[in-house]
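Example: ATPase inhibitor, mitochondrial.
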Amino acid sequence: MIRQTLVQAIKPALRAPLLTCRTLSTSSTRLAEGDTGAPKSGGSAQGDAFSKREQADENLYMRQKEQEKLQALKEKIKEHKKHLEELEKNVEIQGSKAGKGAQK
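Written out as structure tokens, the predicted fold is:
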């Protein structure tokens, strides 16, 4: 009796995922001749104004990113130089304290 009750309670829960699942279907995309998704190469790409502009935009974007990275590196170098100067001052102070202690 308990077994039948459990089976009746569990069956709808087991069937629910099967009812909500959908089959996966894909269709292949049809490409025209020469449409591979690869960038154009050769003479026709060089003469195309859109291609030239796109390439110029990419170059500008990359240059800006490189400038940002370079600026960040320069700032890190400044911070490290400042830290080194502080360390050198501390070493000089410690050295002068040690020298005074040895003279006494």
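The helical segments are 2-20, 43-47, 49-103.
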